[in-house]
Amino acid sequence: MRNRMFTAIAVTGLGLALALATAQPSRATQGNTRTVTIEEKQASLPDDAGTAACGSDEDQQTGPNDCQPLPLTGLKWVLDPSSLGVSVPTNASITATFTDTTVSGYTSCNNYQATYEMDESGKFSVGRMAMTPRVCSSAISAVESDFLKRLFASTQLQTTSTALLLHGKGQILLRFARATSS
C-alpha cells in the first residue's frame, strides 16, 4: 500500500475536529469503521466519512475534485429525517434551496421562504420567514415544528462533498443530502 493524503473529520458532542496528514491506510476494518493512523495517532472513522471516496484504492472512479464541498446555491437539498428529534412519517420530505440571500423549500406540509445571512467562516443566521398557512396532521406538524426550531437555532453552515450541515449548540442540528434529479 502507498501513502495517501487524507482529510479526517471527527464529529463529537463538543464540535468538529479536522486533521490533514499523509497517512498509511490500514486494511483492517471493524464493523463499519476503518482504522487510519494519522501522525502516530489512531482514529476510527465511519466508512462513509469520506476516506473511501476521497482518493483511496477502493474507489478508482473518483477524481481530484470529488472531495470538494458541494456548492450551497443552485442545488436542491433534502433533509435526512434522522437529524430531527421527532419521529418522521415515511411520506414526509423536507427540502431546502438556497440563493445568495434566501432559503426556501417544503416542510412536508407548508412551503417556506426566509432570508439568511452567512459570513466567510460559515457563521449563519436565519431572518424573516414567510410560510403558506396549511393545516397539517399532528405528526407532520411535529416534524415541521422541530425542523423550523432547528433551522432558526442554526449558527453555522457547512457543505461537504456529500452533505449540507447546519450546526448549533456544539452539534449538527440538521443534515441535508443533495436531492437526486426526478
How do you describe this structure in short?
By secondary structure, the chain is mainly beta. The protein is built from one helix and twelve strands, in the order βββββββββαβββ.
Salient structural properties:
single chain; 182 residues; mainly beta; Lipocalin; 2 domains; eight-stranded antiparallel sheet; 1 helix; disordered N terminus
Overall description:
This protein has 182 residues and is mostly beta strands. It has 2 domains: 1-67, no CATH class; 76-178, Lipocalin, CATH 2.40.128. Helix content is 9%, strand content 46%. The protein contains 1 helix and 12 strands. The chain has one helix at residues 138-153, and strands at residues 4-12, 15-30, 33-38, 41-46, 76-79, 95-98, 102-106, 111-118, 124-131, 156-159, 163-168, 171-178. The strands form 2 sheets. An 8-stranded antiparallel sheet has the order 9-8-7-6-5-12-11-10, covered by helices on one side. Strands 1-2-3-4 form a 4-stranded antiparallel sheet, with no helix packed on it. Strand 6 (95-98) and strand 7 form a beta hairpin. The longest helix has 16 residues, at 138-153. It is globular and about 40 Å long. The N and C termini lie far apart (40 Å). Residues 1-65 have low confidence and may be disordered.
CATH architecture of the largest domain: Beta Barrel
Radius of gyration in whole Å, from Cα? 18 Å
SSE order: EEEEEEEEEHEEE
Helicity, as a percent range: under 10%
